[in-house]
Specification:
This protein has 470 residues and is an alpha+beta fold. Among the domains are: 212 residues, no CATH class; 61 residues, Dna Ligase, domain 1 (2-Layer Sandwich). Helices cover 31% and strands 23% of the residues. The longest helix is centred in the first third of the chain and has 25 residues. The model has no long low-confidence stretch (mean pLDDT 90).
Length: 470
């Protein structure tokens, strides 16, 4: 919020004045109201393996994060560039594989990747769009430039919290919201639905049927699945609600079978079709991959996109962008050591207590080591893991992540944040919803923002450059 001298940045000046005048008891009261609203709405997050709380509220912070339109414009261009390259990369991997032939990306990085799907080789997807919905995690370092921390190209979550956070802020602080010209996020469902309908198979005609496929109510993100289906105006279905006949997908309805053209799936590849992947899956639809290969149904995101959001693949994104687009990456990667490379591995082992080490296929804050906060035993354990399977890890320096003002029971204080903008791609191009989801580390000094690790969220406002300071 503030510059080095302590003065609020221009975009934050009005919010800073508001924070100076708002009574602490008002914030406490509004925090309780927010919790009550979220409980009534039913926004919970299931925590697997937590014996004390199978479901909990994600902490919500009342102080919005502000980004100027000028800054956002550059972010938007960089995000569109990145997702365009990701789609070209996936089309190439499952097609001619020119990037491998050119030696830009090592072949074993792809072929040994658990998310690479040989079943997709030679399969043409509509409009060459593999990643219809992307969640690109962005961090700001030293209060200066934005960097990409990771790409989420499988089934990115969190958009329901972006939408609900905005609604709650508008209810609780209408005067503060009204004093800023905030770019809307409420049209996200319309943009998403139009994007999904645009990639329907040609056989769908002018009125394609879209459904949202969920693993069911025991999934950690089930609230989001039901929320989005409702906002999109489409049916929320489980695998048992669908069947395949003559390579065409149908939905069971009270009026008889209804053809399905587009499936927005929130189900991992492994569970989609027991005839193609895991035979023990009771969550998927037998024969779905045959229908997909026949081109009678579109899956969003496409099968096999996980190879593009692998953390080892992430390290090659500058080269991937350069190879396909002939451009330099607008949004830089965080400096990263590939432990598969002997020189990098040696450095990481020698500086383990200074680095953050992550599994290349890990997510949710699991399977990682934060060196400066690790015990001697944890460091020794991770060193052994690195020596045993170095290709399974990458390492990054401990970042000086930017902080935003955050309200808790003790008052207002700085907490580290990241940002997940949502990027939607369809037949007519790519759009970025202005704002995205800001995740915040609720513990002082913590760098872990994941909800599964105790992190929270806050509303993100993209506002006009000059108006916030008036």
């Amino acid at each position: 919020m503030s510059e080095a001298g302590g003065q609020p940045r221009q975009v934050y000046q009005r919010l800073a004045r508001w924070l100076e005048t708002v009574p602490p008891d008002l914030l406490a009261s509004r925090r309780r109201q927010a919790d009550l609203l979220f409980r009534r709405i039913g926004i919970t997050f299931a925590v697997y393996g937590d014996k004390d709380a199978t479901e909990r509220l994600i902490p919500f912070d009342l102080v919005p994060r502000l980004i100027s339109r000028t800054e956002w414009a550059r972010l938007e261009i960089g995000l569109i560039q990145r997702v365009k390259a990701l789609n070209m990369f996936l089309a190439d991997l499952y097609g001619a594989r020119e990037i491998i032939k050119a030696g830009v990306v090592p072949s074993d990085l792809i072929y040994r990747n658990p998310y690479f799907r040989p079943e997709m080789v030679g399969l043409k997807v509509p409009h060459d769009v593999y990643v219809h919905i992307a969640g690109i995690d962005i961090v700001r370092i030293d209060d200066k430039d934005f960097y990409v921390l990771e790409d989420n190209a499988r089934t990115p979550s969190g958009v329901s919290y972006m939408l609900e956070n905005r609604e709650v802020m508008m209810r609780l602080f209408p005067e503060l919201f009204g004093s800023h010209r905030v770019a809307p996020v409420e049209n996200y469902p319309d943009i998403l639905l139009n994007s999904l309908r645009s990639v329907a198979p040609p056989t769908a005609g002018s009125d394609p049927t879209v459904v949202l496929l969920t693993p069911g109510m025991f999934n950690s993100a089930y609230y989001e699945h039901s929320f989005l289906a409702d906002k999109l105006g489409v049916e929320l279905v489980e695998g048992r609600d669908l069947f395949v006949d003559n390579d065409v997908v149908f939905m069971r309805t009270t009026e008889g079978p209804k053809r399905v053209d587009v499936i927005y799936r929130r189900l991992d590849d492994d569970f989609l079709d027991p005839l193609a992947f895991r035979p023990d899956s009771a969550l998927g639809v037998p024969g779905l991959m045959n229908a997909y290969r026949a081109g009678s149904v579109t899956l969003a995101n496409a099968v096999g996109t996980g190879v593009a959001d692998d953390k080892a693949t992430y390290t090659y994104m500058p080269e991937i962008i350069r190879f396909y687009l002939g451009e330099e990456a607008i949004l830089k990667n965080v400096p990263t050591y590939r432990c598969r490379e002997p020189e990098a591995l040696s450095y990481v082992l020698d500086h383990l207590d200074e680095l953050v080490v992550k599994e290349v296929n890990g997510s949710g804050g699991y399977g990682m080591l934060v060196g400066p906060h690790a015990t001697r035993d944890q460091l020794a354990t991770f060193a052994a893991k690195l020596k045993h399977d170095p290709a399974n890890f990458i390492a990054q320096p401990t970042l000086a992540l930017s902080t935003c003002p955050t309200a808790d029971a003790t008052g207002i204080g700085p907490r580290h944040v990241d940002l997940r903008p949502f990027v939607l791609t369809g037949a007519k191009g790519t759009r970025v919803v202005p704002g995205g989801l800001t995740r915040v580390a609720m513990k002082e000094g913590s760098l872990v923002v994941n909800s599964s690790q105790g992190g929270g969220t806050k509303d993100t406002w993209v506002v006009d450059d000059g108006e916030a300071g008036r």
